[in-house]
Design goal:
Layout (H helix, E strand, L loop, with lengths): L1 E10 L4 H17 L3 E17 L2 E13 L1 H13 L3 E8 L4
Antiparallel strand pairs: 1-3, 1-4, 2-3
């Protein structure tokens, strides 16, 4: 299994409960695909550098985990189709 880091930005929405639900859904997708989450951080509400889908603010999250390539593909696919996620990025961490 490889180590990965995923950062994603969630739409501000109407309340924090909706934002938390989206973050929980993404964690569930990872766990359902046998990923081992080592760290999950909520970085909070931040102003975007430029507007995305007419949004100027977003909630930032960072997740560090270990997973197989198939899990990454599924996580990327499901995050891409989630309308509440403005942007996401998954990178492979270097082996030390």
């Amino acid at each position: 299994m490889q180590k990965y880091e995923m950062m994603f930005i969630v739409k501000t929405g109407s309340d924090e409960a909706a934002v938390k639900k989206v973050a929980d859904e993404i964690q569930k997708i990872a766990k359902d695909n046998k990923a081992k989450i080592s760290e999950f951080k909520e970085l909070g509400l931040k102003k975007l550098a430029y507007s995305i889908k007419k949004e100027i603010n977003g909630y930032y999250f960072v997740m560090n985990f270990e997973a197989e390539a198939e899990a990454i593909k599924e996580l990327d696919r499901k995050t891409s189709i989630n309308e509440n996620v403005l942007r996401h990025l998954i990178i492979k961490e270097d082996e030390e």
